[in-house]
Amino acid sequence: MKTIQTLVFLMLLNFGFGQEKFDSAAVEKFQKELNTEYADAKTSPLTAEDLAVFKTLEFYPINEKFFVTAKFVRTESEKPFEMKTSTDRKPLYVKYGEAHFVIDGLDYKLNLYRNIELSKKEEYKDYLFLPFSDLTSGKESYIGGKYIDMKIPKGETIVIDFNTSYNPYCAYNPKYSCPKVPLENDLNIEIKAGVKKFHD
Fold first, then answer.
1. Three-class SS of residue 20?
2. Quick one: pLDDT at residue 200?
């Protein structure tokens, strides 16, 4: 059984990081790269049956509204915890910080996490994990929520581009073990951005 989505992490590490302004071309590149990965049998999480007929993932229209600059609050002295997954696997994570942001005049907060084991690897030492769910989850988007790959910010703000949110591999294939979105990262808003659900 495969565990974390290492392949997609590596591919996405260059998207959305260090970005200060909304860039629709960067999102289009993200979508193209994701489709390329999913169409390739060597890197695709799709089942053999789905891969045989795969053409493209379905995305929400790119929307600047869901590109936000959030206030980043580092949370010190957090204790590692076992993140629940879709299987019995319980990898150790730690809450690294909070992102506070505004959409349509309303305040929201998301926690950002750090995978303890992953952070020991050079290529992931700055990596942060942002899982979330919202009011589209289970309707237009995957019921288990979505992920965004982030990097540790150098200042007191962090950019979140929901247009680059993607589904856990579990949305496509039950052989994977995927972290479940913590309840505190369930947003009371429709985030109509990123990848839509794959199957009804």
1. coil
2. 63
